[in-house]
Every structure is written in C-alpha cells, then in structure tokens.
C-alpha cells in the first residue's frame, strides 16, 4: 500500500518520504480501515521535527504521521464484535501511555499515528460508527480536536451558567470549544485576531470577542474576577501567570492548557484554583459519538480550511500550511 513516513526527525520537507509497504493485517481487538480522509494537527509537525522527546513522549521510527481518520472497515480481527466489514467509521489513533485507558504500546507514551496511508490498523475501542449525515471529511477533521475540546470543558466543569474564557477562538480546538461551551449554556469570551474576528463571530458565536492585537485579555475589566474557567486552546505565551496574576478567575475556578506547559502537570498545585494543569486528550468513542450527533443535528460546525491530495507534494504542503499557524479550520488529506 501507499503511505508516507519518516525515519528520522527533522523538517518535514527533508524527512518525509513516499513508501510502498505491505497492507497490514488486523490482530485481536483491531480492525483494518481503508482510509478515505485523514487530517493533520499541530502535533504532527512537532513530532516530525523533534519526536517530542523532551516532553517524554516516544515515537518509534519509521513513523507514519496523522492521527485522525475516517474510512471503511476492510477487515476485522478476532475478539471484535462492534464492527463488521463495510462499516463506515472514524476515530483517533492516539497512544495514551502507561495506565491510561484505551492505550496501545502502553509501557511508554507512544504516539501511534498511521493515518497518512491507504490502510490503518485501529483498535476497535478507539472507533465510532460514522453517521450517514456526517461526511468522511468532517468526521476526520473533528476527531482529535473535537475530543480535546469536549474533554477540556468536562475537566473544567463548564456547564449552564458558567463564565468561560477560551484563548484561541479561531483555532481548530478553540472554535469547537466555544460552540460546545455555548451548547452547554455557558457565557463565553474568546480571543482572536482582527483578521479572524468575523469568522469567529459567525461560526463560533461567542458572547464576547477580544482582539488580542488591540486589547490585553488579562487586563479586561469586563471579565476580571468573574470567570469560572479559562481554557488555553492555543498555547498562549505565559497564559497561566497572566490568568493568575490578573485575577481573572474566581476563587476555586479552573484553568487548563493543551499547549502551554508552564502551568505544570499537578492540577492541585496552584492555590485558589480547583484545577490548573496541562491536559492531553484520551481516546473516547463516547465523546466521538456525541460530537457526530451534534454535527448531524447541525449544532456543531466543523470548518475545513483546505483539502490536500494524497501525494508527497500534497502531504508536504499540508505540513507547511499547518505549521504556518494561519489556518482557521482543519487541513485534511483526501486519501481516496
């Protein structure tokens, strides 16, 4: 089968190669998916360049990138009853690390990936059935970022009546987080640039938009001391110290970042906060099912920024586009 992989870390243009490898066979508890669409995330270029070894993650080489996929079950391994050949499915092939649910290779924090290929072996416990009302493109686009946003709001305790600041409302995670928080009945403020303001207003529909090129969000009197939670969905520089020192969150409020590790991993280490930590998603078909339902019911909009062909040039262009930081939606690869 055709795939794209790298055998050393470095700039994508230097290390990613087209390869021809045998079609893999499913083992116990797994299925083989014929991939229709895969999507790229910021973690893809970070792993490609460094392996994220400094963060304690493990990436076995050679490595086939991309974690999100949507496609059709092509073969079923033993001990699988939830899926059969012909089922349309989607999910995230993410390795959780030791003692985490739904882990693969769980002795260490392995990044499993493998979606930049014609076929992928997926643990059945990571997949969801794709509703007919949701396209393969949208299903692949929402899997990782949607799960991240949904779980972050759960951890933060966002519910009806909550007041939340989401940093990075134009990003793939941020725009979904704003919509999900609004769906829960929360009041939501978000940050973005003037360039993306109209997009965020029309798609995510927050209650308040802060143009970070005009105003400092940590100095906004309208939100000081009134927030129940802050979600850094973009890796804002010094975000946690600014939230803490700006006294944006009420006593006992929460803070979570998916990109800025300055807050640390100990959620109980910061006085005045019920929870404050860096967070990484966990595979959850239950969350994927809920996201698909919201999309099918037209309660969640997933924006596709650009679709790239399944060629070496297309894959490399996708990496360049993703790393530019200019996307306001998901970049996807049309595999077949």
TrEMBL record:
<dbReference type="Pfam" id="PF08240">
    <property type="entry name" value="ADH_N"/>
</dbReference>
<dbReference type="InterPro" id="IPR036291">
    <property type="entry name" value="NAD(P)-bd_dom_sf"/>
</dbReference>
<dbReference type="InterPro" id="IPR011032">
    <property type="entry name" value="GroES-like_sf"/>
</dbReference>
<dbReference type="GO" id="GO:0016491">
    <property type="term" value="F:oxidoreductase activity"/>
</dbReference>
<dbReference type="Pfam" id="PF13602">
    <property type="entry name" value="ADH_zinc_N_2"/>
</dbReference>
<protein>
    <submittedName>
        <fullName>2-methylene-furan-3-one reductase</fullName>
    </submittedName>
</protein>
<dbReference type="InterPro" id="IPR052585">
    <property type="entry name" value="Lipid_raft_assoc_Zn_ADH"/>
</dbReference>
<feature type="domain" description="Enoyl reductase (ER)">
    <location>
        <begin position="11"/>
        <end position="333"/>
    </location>
</feature>
<dbReference type="InterPro" id="IPR013154">
    <property type="entry name" value="ADH-like_N"/>
</dbReference>
<dbReference type="InterPro" id="IPR020843">
    <property type="entry name" value="ER"/>
</dbReference>
């Amino acid at each position: 089968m055709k795939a794209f992989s790298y055998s050393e870390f470095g700039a994508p243009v230097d290390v990613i190669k087209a390869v021809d490898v045998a079609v893999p066979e499913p083992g116990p508890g797994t299925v083989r998916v014929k991939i229709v669409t895969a999507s790229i995330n910021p973690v893809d270029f970070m792993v490609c360049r460094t392996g994220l070894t400094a963060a304690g993650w493990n990436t076995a080489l050679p490595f086939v990138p991309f974690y999100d996929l949507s496609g059709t079950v092509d073969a079923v391994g033993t001990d699988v009853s939830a899926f059969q050949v012909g089922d349309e499915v989607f999910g995230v092939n993410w390795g959780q690390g030791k003692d985490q649910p739904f882990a693969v290779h769980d002795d260490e924090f392995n990044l499993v990936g493998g979606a930049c290929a014609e076929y992928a072996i997926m643990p059945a416990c990571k997949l969801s059935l794709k509703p007919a009302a949701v396209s393969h493109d949208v299903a692949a686009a929402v899997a990782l970022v949607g799960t991240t946003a949904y779980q972050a709001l759960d951890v933060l305790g966002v519910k009806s009546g909550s007041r939340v600041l989401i940093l990075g409302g134009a990003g793939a995670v941020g725009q979904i987080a704003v919509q999900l928080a609004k769906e829960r009945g929360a009041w939501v403020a978000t940050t973005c640039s003037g360039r993306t303001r109209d997009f965020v207003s029309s798609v995510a529909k927050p209650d308040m938009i802060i143009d970070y090129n005009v105003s400092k969000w940590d100095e906004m009197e309208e939100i000081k001391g009134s927030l129940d939670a802050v979600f850094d969905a973009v890796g804002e520089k010094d975000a946690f110290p600014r939230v803490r020192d700006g006294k944006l969150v009420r006593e006992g409020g929460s803070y979570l970042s998916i990109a800025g590790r300055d807050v640390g991993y100990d959620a109980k280490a910061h006085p005045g906060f019920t929870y404050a930590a860096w967070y990484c998603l966990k595979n959850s078909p239950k969350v994927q099912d809920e996201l698909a339902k919201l999309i099918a019911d037209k309660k969640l909009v997933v924006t596709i920024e650009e679709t790239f062909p399944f060629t070496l040039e297309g894959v490399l262009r996708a990496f360049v586009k993703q790393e530019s930081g200019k996307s306001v939606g998901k970049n996807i690869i049309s595999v077949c």
